[in-house]
Structures are given as structure tokens and as C-alpha cells.
């Protein structure tokens, strides 16, 4: 939901909580502000009210504790003043303190707060809060002014050409066949059909252990997302396999381009059938109690998938989606005087067939430079391979390349020569690709080009985010986190209170939003509570990201993309979970001052 809608929801929660009814069965107020436990006044807790407003009714024993450092009042700067004022008010009203006031057990109090909070979250999601995200939106990690961009560059696969999910199934079937027929793997593997929604982009694969998993931005494995074959690995076993920790050291996670000595990160959409075939083959060997070497299996599956790419040439056109949109983008850019270029790892015959299908036989007229079989990312980070020219039949020519001319097709080469021959440098160049490492990383970090990441998964994930179920689940998750944060004080350290808090913590860790995306691995952008390793790289290597290049059609070519100023943890004046719990301070320093 947008920041404005979140703000509206937060204000609604605050207003609602300020006048909330008494907790069911308990003559204590639902919410008050500023205290450690700021709703349904805790036993023995001190109350203070925002801007000096009168506090809600408190239990009779609220000031009975003579120790100013006990209970929720520990370290509270207002405690003595508030206590004296409370005594004066009670004296004037003729009321007296009573040591025989009924005691409220902590367990009952905690669950009362829980239930009241759940009701508030359910009731106060504003109508129309869903469907706020447009899947055709371009999102900005960095400010980009299109008016300053004169040159647009593109990768081919999953950038200019988007493919249907049927292509993944075809690649899987062909690679499985190659594995059985060429490497003589058991015929039983042929019985494993492709599972469309099993894997997700951005996952890591432990080559030596044969485990597929999801890792967050801080190199921690997300528990519940580790798979050996097609079956999840219990959390306890994961901890044993990684020496008592779910943290994977940096040098093992991956190198700069996504592959370390022990881990491989699958970063492009073409990797989905490869991950699924790895899982299927592992599952076959484990289920049939056959010893095998996971490292050799990984290598054999990788070669099998790569061997399929030549086969797809004959039938690729039937898998291409929305070719008319690709034509519209190229036509619009060219008609506005923008220079266009193509740098792809695919062979010319493959690209030529697809571009003729999408754009027409004169597709090369749109591009000022076309480079095929570029061997990215090496194209961007070394200057070894020279450019070679291909004739109209795709045959290699051996003349020295002194210029990159429109209408010609070039093979291999390197970025150093490309920059010398074109003079296209810096932020006036915007390059689009789907692979964060091979397409974007070097251009962003070493050469100062603007970069745009194509993330087709955004279309599906946006639909999930726009559902009422997601809005309810996410808001409750934030509210529950706020409750946990506020209730972890020493007054709730008895056995029953600890059990309640553990139940809440378990509910929080189950992360109900995960199953709304991929049932095995969840969203490609988030683990339970942190950004994923993929998401971290997306923010680092791309100025912009979007579901497809057709999103450009929604914006004027002088449009400026501004990133949202997301508050840092120490900047946020007000968080959703604080609104939900009635906490108006960040991070309630007064109540926590006793830690010093």
C-alpha cells in the first residue's frame, strides 16, 4: 500500500485506539500512550498521556508499587510526577488506594491485548487499500532523468524478448532427456515431470551438499526454505550441516558474478528449469538410496541445460510474448532521435529469427549497433576479444573493425573498444537487462552507465501485494511485531507470560505472507523479515527496475524517476507497528533507559 494510505491507516489505528472500548472481560482501557505496555493498561504499569491529555482509567493498583524502579516504571522519567498527580487527583475525588484491588494475571492481559489488536487490524484496513500498485510501474532505486538519456541499450532474452512459461517446461524436458541419453543417468529420472512453481529466481544452490535455499541480504539462510531434492530439510538438520549456524560466510555465498567455490546463485529466468531438474535428480537418487556425487550432478545438469539452447532455435517464436510491445518501445525511442544498441550473448541466427517475428524483417534499422555472442560479463570487464563482423548470412568476416556501423552485425568484442568506437559514456547511456550480474553490475559500478533491471516476476508479485489477504497479513505481522517489542520487559518473565510470547514469536516466524507467493520459497524480494540476497543486488546494480521494457510506454521521455525516501531505522519518526501498539516514541528510550 502507498505511504499515504499507510499513514491514513496509522492515524485511523491511533484514533481508534485512543477511544477503544475496555478490553473484553477486563475493566482496563484498550490503549494509552507512552507506557511500556501502551494498551489495556498493564498491571502495576504507569500511564502518561500524549501532550498532557488526561489518561484513560487505570486499574486500582496502578500506583500501589512503592518502588519507582519496578515494573513498567523502571527508568521512566515521568514516573514520580505522574504518581503524585495521580494521587492528587484521587485525593480530590475522594478515592483511596487499595491493596485489596483484584489482580489481573499477565497471561490474560497479554491475550486481551493480542485479541484487541487483531480486531483493530481487521476492522481498520481502509476500503480500497488494495489494488494500489500498478504492475506497469517503473520503480527507482536512484534518481534518473530520461531527458538526459540519449542512448538506450538492450539485452535480448527476457529483455527485448519475453517468453511464456511453456519455454521453461520445454527446456526442462530436453535437458532431462539429454541427461539420460548422453550422460546415461537412470531412466527413472524421466518420470519426474516439470513443476512450474517449484523454484524461484535468486535462490542459492550449495553445490557440495546438493541443497537449494533462499538467503537474505545479510547472508542468513531462511529457515523452512532449504530443499534437498523435492523435500524440505528440517531446521535442526540445516543448523548441523552449517556448523550450528544458519549464516553462510561471504566467500561461500558467491563471488561477484554469483558463483563462489561452494554456492551458485541462479539469477536469470532461464535458471528455473535448471533448478527444478537439479531438485528432481537429487530426489531420485535419495529416494532410491543411490550414492552419487552432488558436484558432478550439478555439472552434468548445467551442461544438459546449456545444450538445449541450440534446440530451441527452431521453435522459439511460439514461446515469445508481447512482441508488439517491443516494437512499440523501439519505434518510440527511435522516432524521438534516441540511439539504440543491442548487446546479447545469444547467437545471431537466434536473435534474427525472434526479432523478425516481433519487429519485422527490417528490425536492424532501429539499432545503431548490434553485437551478438558478446560473452557477458567478460565483455564488460576485460579487453581481450576483438570485434568481428558477420555477413548477412551470419558467417564470420576477418577484416579489422575500425568503426561500429549501423546495419552491420558484430560478434564478441569488449566494452573498452566499444567505448572508443562509439564515445557513448556515462549517465547518458541507459542499458536494460534481466541478469543483475552479467548485464548490469559492471556497467553500474565501473562505467557509470544508467541501468534498468527487467524483473518479469514483478507482474505476479504485484497482484499478490494488491490482494486484501496480503494487506491484512502484512499489517497484522507489523502489529504483532510491535506487540512483541513492547512486551519483552521484565514484568512478563513469569512462565505463563513467556509461553504467550513464544506463541506470538512462533506465529511471527511462520510468516503467513510467504505462502501467498511461492509455497516453497516465498517472494523473490523478501525472506521472512529481511530483503533477499537477490533484492539487495537489485538495489545495488540497477537504477530502475520494472516488469518489462513495455513499462517505458507509460512515461514521457523527459520524465524524471525519483526514489522514495524510505526512512532509515534511526530516521523513522513513526512506524506502523508503533501506531498499532499505541507507541508514539522511537524507540521508547524512556522505558528502556534502565538498560544503561
From TrEMBL:
Species for this entry: Pygocentrus nattereri (Red-bellied piranha)
PANTHER family in UniProt: 5'-NUCLEOTIDASE DOMAIN-CONTAINING (PTHR12103), 5'-NUCLEOTIDASE DOMAIN-CONTAINING 2 (PTHR12103:SF19)
InterPro entries, sorted: HAD-like_sf, HAD-SF_hydro_IG_5-nucl, HAD_sf
Keywords annotated in UniProt: Hydrolase, Magnesium, Metal-binding
Domain of life: Eukaryota
Family from the record: Belongs to the 5'(3')-deoxyribonucleotidase family.
Entries under Pfam families matching the protein: 5_nucleotid
Keyword presence, Metal-binding: yes
Protein name: 5'-nucleotidase domain containing 2
Keyword Magnesium: yes
Recorded GO MF terms: 5'-nucleotidase activity; metal ion binding
